[in-house]
Specification:
The chain has 137 residues and is mainly β. The chain has one domain: Immunoglobulin-like (Sandwich), CATH 2.60.40.2550. It has no helices and 9 strands. A 5-stranded mixed beta sheet has the order 3-9-8-5-6, with no helix packed on it. Strand 8 and strand 9 form a beta hairpin. It is elongated, with a radius of gyration of 17 Å. It starts with a strand and ends with a strand.
């Protein structure tokens, strides 16, 4: 399994196997004070699951880390289990979209953060971003 896309958006959801993204691809949250609470954000992921990996439980872990790689409040663990699409030929990979929404996420200080996406010990993706001071604040 690999991550073929990983980014932040204002909002995202999966319907009918498709990703619907609003305001995607940003890397900075502007805050007037510390700690900073962001009202809503989505972590958008697209996994490529190889044909041979289908029908097995694949562990996924998502961590929010600060710039020193310390935990920053989010740690999710789940298992991904994907079947073969109807009519797919042996060897054909599946693409699995995921959208995780975080409401009222608080960042203790300004600086760099990242969402790290792991499958077991393998890092599939890292989504870096910054929480920066609002100019004039």
């Amino acid at each position: 399994m690999n991550a073929t896309a990983a980014f932040l958006a204002d909002a995202a959801q999966v319907q009918g196997g498709k990703l619907y993204v609003h305001g995607g691809g940003w890397d900075t949250i502007y805050a007037g004070s510390e700690p900073a609470t962001h009202p809503t954000m989505a972590l958008v992921l697209l996994f490529r699951v190889e044909y041979s990996e289908a029908l097995t439980d694949m562990p996924i872990e998502i961590q929010l880390l600060d710039e020193d790689e310390n935990p920053a409040g989010v740690q999710l663990q789940q298992k991904l289990n994907v079947g073969h699409a109807p009519g797919s030929k042996p060897g054909t990979p599946s693409f699995v979209p995921q959208a995780l929404t975080f409401n009222m996420l608080t960042f203790p200080r300004l600086g760099g953060y990242q969402f790290r996406i792991l499958a077991g010990a393998k890092e599939l993706a890292s989504v870096p971003f910054r929480v920066s001071a609002l100019v004039g604040a």
